[in-house]
Design a protein that fits this description.
Elements: E1 2-6, H1 10-22, E2 26-30, H2 33-42, E3 47-50, H3 59-67, H4 76-80
Parallel strand pairs: 1-2, 1-3
Helix pairs in contact: 2-3
């Protein structure tokens, strides 16, 4: 399971990250709303753990952005084969 952790508190975030990793999950950590947006644009996550009190962009603003429909088509199953794992470079789509 691939999880995006979004939070700016390093102490709490570190504990949450450790717990999720110990549970066998792959964790990407975004420290603010803009980093989270960039991560969500390039990677399909199974779960987002979101701090609502973020700096730069509030967690509720990010949640509203997440809920907006995206221009991709297909089912979740179809999109999972294009998942990028942490550290991997996005593949170029063939035309």
């Amino acid at each position: 399971m691939c999880v995006l952790l979004v939070g700016d508190d390093r102490l709490i975030g570190s504990g949450v990250e450790d717990g999720l990793t110990e549970a066998g999950m792959t964790v990407d950590w975004a420290h603010d709303g803009r980093q989270a947006q960039l991560a969500l644009e390039t990677t399909l996550y199974d779960l987002v753990v979101l701090d609502l009190g973020l700096s730069r962009m509030s967690g509720t603003e990010l949640l509203d952005w997440i809920r907006k429909p995206r221009p991709y088509a297909g089912t979740r199953h179809d999109r999972t084969r294009h998942r990028r794992r942490p550290g991997e470079r996005p593949e170029r789509r063939r035309r």
